[in-house]
Amino acid sequence: MAKDSNAAQRRSNKARQQAKGKKLQANAPKNELKPSELETSTAPPKLDKQDTSAQLVLEQRLHTQEDQIAALRQKNEALEKELKETQQTLQESHRAFADQMVGISASFDQDKERVCEQVRTELDQVRAELGVSQDKERSLTQRLHELENKIQTDTSAALSPFTALKDIQAQLHQAFQALTDEFTRALTQMEQALKDTTPDRMESVLRSVRDYQALDLYGVNLPATLMGDINTLKQAPPAMPQRSNSRDTGGAVLRALARSPHYNENLHREDLKPVPALDLNDKTGRSMYANLVYEWEVPRKLFHCITGFVVLYLYKMNVNVEVIIRTLFNIFLVVASADLLRLNSPTFEHFFESFLSILMRESEKERVNGVVWYLVGVMTSLHFFPEDIASVSIIVLSWCDPAASTFGRMFGKCTPALPGGIFARRKSLAGFLAAWAVGSLIAYLFWGAGIAKAGERASGLSWEPGSNAMFGTALMPDALHTGWRGFARGFAVTDSNFAERLRNLTRPRIPAMPPILMFTLCGLIAAMTEALELGGLDDNVAIPILFSFLLWFSLWAWGQIMSSVSFL
């Protein structure tokens, strides 16, 4: 294309030169040649100076144009060479881009297949777990019906002898009332007979009875006059014992009293000893077993601690929280029904406490069992709060409460009591510090030692060492960044919406709370929830809910403060 343009330009220049030459010839004077001059007309014409200069100018312009044409030709060749190199580079880039797109497409297809396979596997597991849970629910429901029927049958069977026993008790009460009336009449007759009795006769009466204080065993209040006579006779010199006359009234009464195991007419006066009083509050005779069970509540504390290990196992095995809540609700129905029956049926109460009295406090025997409140607190915490926070709150209830109670009993006398009003009565500084230490240790073992990461759910963790803060930051979609997802889900770390997760990737990151502050704060919250006065609210329902709320609020406040600082 460039060569054709150059040839056309040369032809145009040549045409212009020819046209200019013709113009010069036309302007030249036309002289007619004479015959004498025809011979010399064939000689070359002589050019004047003006024509020579014009020709030089034309030649100079021609050379200049030829130089320009040569320069343009070189420039054209350079541009053609550069164009070829550019086309080659573009072709290579296109091939590299095509290869890269092929690799990305293959990788995307592999990731897509892998993710789809994982989703299929999880769906299969969920379907399997759902089927197992439904089978368990049906079996538990059937078992509950069987247990209710058995309880009704056993209650009816147990109440039948109880009704007969009540009839026997009424008959015995009537007989005892008649015996009491007869004994009172006989005692009145004995008092009248003793008024005319000599000192020797009275001494015989006293020796016939082992101890006059034995009358108190029968609930009989001796008259003041008779007590005065007895005290007088006690100061009199001893006489030979004589048997009471069976014909008089006093003798019949004494023979009736002689049937008591306290009676022995062969004992002498100096050998008479009063019956020792029974002190029901005396703990010196209590066995070690009773001391461990009722004083230190060892079985109850062991049961508390075991539930904490069960929570760790279920979290580590990644058991679905909805399955756990449904199972706990079924257990709650059974326990609440049994407790309601216990509070309204003395027979079932005796049967119930014969098996589970070592796990109950004396104060719980007249009110709702603590297990009922425990199940309510655990289910509420698991439903409304993130799973890692709820799990830690249940472990705090299982371990901090026994630790505070044990150390408070051991060292509470050596430390001052906590101030009243805010804290409950009988709460010592020793128990508070023990709960603080155990709560911090629980937080370290759960989040710091990797248990939380090993059992992490799809919803994510509320806190992780060296990670980003979640609550109180822009990662939470609601206006206050609380993570509230409604009553159906409560507070959650991440949303199940895939678009929301993608948007979180572009939002600013806030550093999480430092580990030492997190562990210390967990211990402080555990100690405070264990020691606070909550108006008589049971600890089993107050500790998990209040601990979960305060820990969530602390994480939310940290996110809010750090977001404000980073914005400034």
Automatic annotation (TrEMBL):
Task: Please give the start and end residues of each transmembrane region.
Answer: 429-447, 510-529, 541-559
Give yes or no: UniProt keyword Membrane: yes
Residue ranges annotated as compositionally biased, kind Polar residues, are: 1-10
User: Keywords for this entry?
Assistant: Coiled coil, Kinase, Membrane, Transferase, Transmembrane, Transmembrane helix
Q: Where is this region: Disordered?
A: 1-49
Q: Which InterPro entries match?
A: Dgk1-like
Among the record's GO biological process terms, what is one?
A: phosphatidic acid biosynthetic process
The answer to keyword Ribosomal protein applying to this record is: no
Compositionally biased tracts (Basic residues): 11-23
Reading the lineage from the top rank, the first entry is Eukaryota
The enzyme's main class, written as a single word, is transferase
Give the E.C. number(s). 2.7.1.174
List, in alphabetical order, the Gene Ontology terms for molecular function in this entry. ATP-dependent diacylglycerol kinase activity; CTP-dependent diacylglycerol kinase activity
What protein name is recorded for this chain?
A: Diacylglycerol kinase (CTP)
Organism of derivation: Malassezia arunalokei
